[in-house]
Amino acid sequence: MILISEDVWSAEFEALAKSFPLIREPELWSNAEELKAKLATATALVVRNRTQVSRDLIASAKNLKIIARAGVGLDNIDVKAADEFGVVVSAALGINATAVGEETLAMALALSRKLIELDSSTREGQWNRKAGVEISGKTWGLLGFGATARATAELLRGFKVKVLAYDPFAKPEQSYLDSINCQMSSLDEVISNSDFISVHLPATSETKEIIDSKKLSAMKKSALLISVGRGEVINEADLEKALRDGVIAGAGLDVRAQEPPKDKRFTDLDNVILAPHIAGITHESQAAINRVLVSEIRAALGGQVQSYAVGTVKQAK
Fold this sequence. Notes:
By secondary structure, the protein is an alpha/beta fold. Helices cover 34% and strands 15% of the residues. Helix 7 links the parallel strand 6 (139-143) and strand 7 (162-166).
């Protein structure tokens, strides 16, 4: 049986349901006991980012062969435990990179030209012709240099920006860096020299609140910060103070430390754009991800190797 515990569906999954027993309960992620009970007989689990796939949950699912992640972040899945229990974890890494890159630029453009603020005032009958700033010719900093950061850099080529990237684990070819006018740099160099900074880092013990009051103070006063990785990377209290005090010019937050956030932080600031973690969600990216996941599930249940396995287990038990 295939179990879908979040809001994941498409024509591909509809076709899959004709070949295998399938249960789809988009809110099942919120009931841990019921999830565990239904997973006991499941051979495949499909999740987004809300289902917490813990070691205990994996250990209790004796028939589970594959966990299919509709997205790229893996912080809600204990991949190490899945490896130990012989369960494949498949994620369509890189499939939604262009979508994330496009929203990163959209937020930067909207902030730099004050479009949200001016739209609101114009609707109220005002005619405030405030000057914005251009992206072209500036320096853009990337924190992280994985698929979404690279997609952002590639989209930026038309803006003729200088790109600085920080990622201690990335080892890109120099020819590729030259093609996007990018220079690998230290964290401090990116922070202090960039006019725009986009954050593409995963949530780890090393990256937690890596952007704090000290780093914010080291940024240019005119800097715009775009966060599309994981919210835990930014100390939100420090960022709120920096925005209110004019330490930096603005921020675009697609991700938050708590999702959905329970506080009203940032909501009264006109130099902030807030979005509900949708950078990677477009019709095109979701269709592509679903095609990959269905293919991976069919392969796992058919005893074949998974092309998008992210752990050490490449073939289901």
